[in-house]
Amino acid sequence: MNDKIFSREIAAGYDPVILANATISVVGAGAMGQNVSICLAQSQVGAMNVTDYDHWEPHNATRSICYPNQAERKRWGTNKAAVVAHKVKQLVHWSDRPHIHYAPRRIQELGDAPFRKASVVISAVDNQAARDYIGFKTAQFGVPLVEGGFSGPRMNATILPNDSPKSPCWHCNRYDEDDQNKAIQLGCTRVAREVEQAGLVPAIPSASAYLAAFMAEAAIQLTHGTIQLGNRQIF
Questions:
Q1: Pick from 15, 44, 173, 219: most CB atoms within 10 A?
Q2: Buried b (16+ CB within 10 A) or exposed e, 55-76
Q3: Residue 158, beta-bridge partner list
Q4: DSSP letter at 105?
Q5: Rounded CA gap, 103 and 137, in Å?
Q6: How many CB atoms lie within 10 A of CB 203?
Q7: How much of the chain is helix, strand and coil, in % rounded to 5?
Q8: Which of 34, 11, 23, 52 shows the shortest CA–CA distance to 213?
């Protein structure tokens, strides 16, 4: 470890050794997920897993710091997770960390893998079914969850340490084991329809960068066990 490189982080209270041993799963590689990934990579977490099944569209250009040019599309394809993983790695060319893996899949298709060994999971998705699934899986494995979203002019972040069966979970209710899957399915279907009817409000660049920085800091604090905002939703 080079203390000169990490001098500012050490002064801020970060422990480079703790960060080097952390594995963070970032679900969603849109505007918010990109900014979170960059913050975490520059903070030198040891490993990152980026998941997103979506592909780039023209309207992403104004909101995406990792929007690929034509040469990058030919080299890496058009999947968001693939491009973000490669571009974020280029930004930290001066280090061998983080080790970045990506999955061009829906998070539900990957089973337990993104959660089983994660130090923290970042939820940066705009799909309610995926958000519910991530909330359920992080509670199941006791993995800290940092989740962000937008609702009209408001943005919010939720920090859930998931460190106790009695702690609040994403669903704000504790279901009996036999009812968990049913509750997830009913909640996903109902809420997804409501969101679809209301229309999606996308993140603008400044808002997504602001919220992403807060979420990255919350994730870093969770790896250190010093989070003061656990079990909170912040608007």
A1: 219
A2: ebeeebeebbbbbbeeebeeeb
A3: 147, 233
A4: S
A5: 17
A6: 23
A7: 45, 15, 35
A8: 34
User: CA 122 to CA 33: how far, in whole Å?
Assistant: 8
Q: Hey, CA dihedral for 222, 145, 57, 155, is it positive or negative? A: negative
Q: What is the mean pLDDT of each run of 10 residues along the chain (235 residues)?
A: 80 93 97 96 97 95 95 97 98 96 97 95 91 93 92 80 79 46 40 50 71 91 84 73
Distance (Å) of CA 99 to CA 24, 43, 47, 64, 82:
10, 13, 5, 22, 14
Residue 143's nearest CA partner among 174, 112, 101 is 112
Point out which residues pair with 55 in neighbouring strands. 79
- The pair of structure tokens assigned to 87 is 């571009």
Model confidence, pTM: 0.83
Distance CA 69, CA 82 (A): 14
Closest CA to 121 of 91, 149, 143, 96: 143
CA–CA distance, 36 with 64 (Å, rounded to integer): 12
Q: Which residue has the tokens 């913050």?
A: 39
